[in-house]
Specification:
- This protein has 340 residues and is mainly α.
- The chain contains 11 helices and 4 strands; from the N terminus they run H-E-E-E-E-H-H-H-H-H-H-H-H-H-H.
- The protein has a two-stranded antiparallel sheet with strand order 1-4. Strands 2-3 form a two-stranded antiparallel sheet.
- It starts with a helix and ends with a helix.
C-alpha cells in the first residue's frame, strides 16, 4: 500500500498527540487520586506532636482560636517551626489553612496542574521536533513509556497518601527501563518531565525533583551498552551513591543536623537497591511482552549451549565460522558508524 504525504505527516504527528493525551490523562488522575495530603505530604500537625517541617502561610487568612478570638495570619508568616511541639492555636491555624485550600483545590489546583503539564508537553514536543527520535515513531514504544510513567505516578501518589518517604519513588528504575528498551535520549527527557511532575505533586519539592533526576540520569548512564544482567547491580550501586550524596548535600544546605542528614541519606541507598531489583524483575517481562530485542537478548542467543548453534557447529562448521566473521564485521561497522 502506498503511503501518501498526508499519511506520513499523520505518522509523524501521532506520537506528539499521544504524548499530549498522556499528560491530559495525568491531569485527570491527579485530580481524582491526589487528596489534600498533596499540600502537606507525610506530615501530621496535631496538638502535642513534633513538627517535621517549617510551615509558612502561603497567603493572608484568619481563624478563630480556642477562646473564639479572631487571629490574622499574614503571607509568609511562620506558623509552625520544624522541631517545635504543635500547640492548639497552631493546630487550628493549619486546619483553617487546609480547609481553605481544600475548598479551592478543585479549581486552582487543577488549573495549576493543567498549566504545568501544558508546559511539560511543549518541552517534550519541542524535543521530539528537534531531534526526531525514530524510536518514538513506534506505537509500542510510546505505549511502553506511557505505561511506565503512569505506574510511576500511581506509586508516587500511593507513597504520599501512605506517608512513606518520597525518596523511595523508583524513578531511576523507569529511567533505566526506558533507556534499555527504547533509547537513552528519550529516557533523559522522560526522566526530566517525570521528576518535575512528581516534585510538583509532592508540594513543590525541589529537593525531591533534583534527587530523582540525578538518580535517574546516573541510572541511564549505568546501563548504556549493557551486555550482562548483572550490570544492573552496578547500576543500582551508582544510583544508591548518587541519591545518598544528593540527599546529604541538600540536607546540609537546609542546616539539618548531621545525624538527621545521615538518616535521610540512607533512603537514597534503599532507593538504589529498590530500583536495581525492580529493573531486574521487570526487564525480561517487558522484553517478552513488547517483543523488544536488547543487547542482552542478542548475547543470550549467541550462547553456544543453544541447541540450534550446537547443531550448526556439528553439521555445518564452515557456515558457523563464516557467520561469526560476518557478524564481527557488521558489529565493527555499526560501532564505527555510531562513533561518527
Amino acid at each position: 500500500m502506498k503511503i501518501t504525504g498526508l499519511d506520513k505527516g499523520w505518522m509523524r504527528l501521532a506520537p506528539i498527540k499521544i504524548i499530549i493525551g498522556v499528560f491530559i490523562l495525568l491531569v485527570l488522575l491527579s485530580v481524582i487520586f491526589v487528596g489534600r495530603e498533596v499540600f502537606w505530604p507525610g506530615y501530621n500537625f496535631k496538638e502535642g506532636q513534633i513538627s517535621q517541617r517549617n510551615v509558612y502561610a502561603p497567603f493572608d487568612f484568619s481563624f478563630n482560636d480556642s477562646d473564639g478570638q479572631d487571629i490574622e495570619v499574614k503571607r509568609n508568616e511562620l506558623i509552625v517551626q520544624r522541631g517545635e511541639r504543635v500547640n492548639r492555636t497552631q493546630e487550628l491555624a493549619i486546619e483553617q489553612l487546609m480547609d481553605i485550600q481544600r475548598q479551592s483545590r478543585n479549581l486552582y489546583y487543577s488549573l495549576g496542574i493543567l498549566l504545568l503539564l501544558i508546559i511539560l508537553s511543549l518541552v517534550t514536543v519541542t524535543y521530539v521536533e528537534i531531534y526526531k527520535p525514530s524510536q518514538l515513531l513506534r506505537a509500542k514504544n510510546v505505549f511502553l513509556i506511557a505505561m511506565l510513567g503512569l505506574l510511576l505516578i500511581f506509586s508516587a501518589q500511593a507513597m504520599m497518601l501512605l506517608s512513606w518517604p518520597l525518596f523511595l519513588i523508583p524513578l531511576a528504575a523507569v529511567s533505566m527501563l526506558i533507556a534499555v528498551l527504547v533509547s537513552p535520549g528519550i529516557s533523559i527527557m522522560a526522566t526530566l518531565v517525570l521528576s518535575i511532575f512528581i516534585g510538583f505533586l509532592a508540594g513543590l519539592r525541589f529537593d525531591l525533583t533534583l534527587t530523582l533526576f540525578a538518580g535517574g540520569t546516573v541510572g541511564i548512564y549505568s546501563v548504556l551498552n549493557m551486555r550482562q544482567r548483572r550490570s544492573l547491580t552496578k547500576a543500582g550501586i551508582l544510583v544508591a551513591l548518587t541519591g545518598m550524596i544528593t540527599i546529604f548535600a541538600l540536607g546540609l544546605t537546609n542546616f539539618m543536623s548531621i545525624s538527621e542528614v545521615i538518616g535521610q541519606s540512607m533512603w537514597g541507598v534503599v532507593n538504589g537497591i529498590e530500583c536495581a531489583l525492580l529493573v531486574t524483575f521487570m526487564l525480561p517481562i517487558l522484553e517478552s511482552l513488547f517483543g523488544i530485542t536488547t543487547n542482552i537478548n542478542l548475547l543470550e542467543m549467541s550462547d553456544l549451549n543453544q541447541p540450534l548453534l550446537k547443531e550448526l557447529v556439528l553439521k555445518a562448521p564452515g557456515t558457523y565460522h563464516h557467520s561469526l566473521v560476518v557478524g564481527n564485521l557488521a558489529e565493527s561497522a555499526a560501532d564505527r558508524t555510531a562513533g561518527l
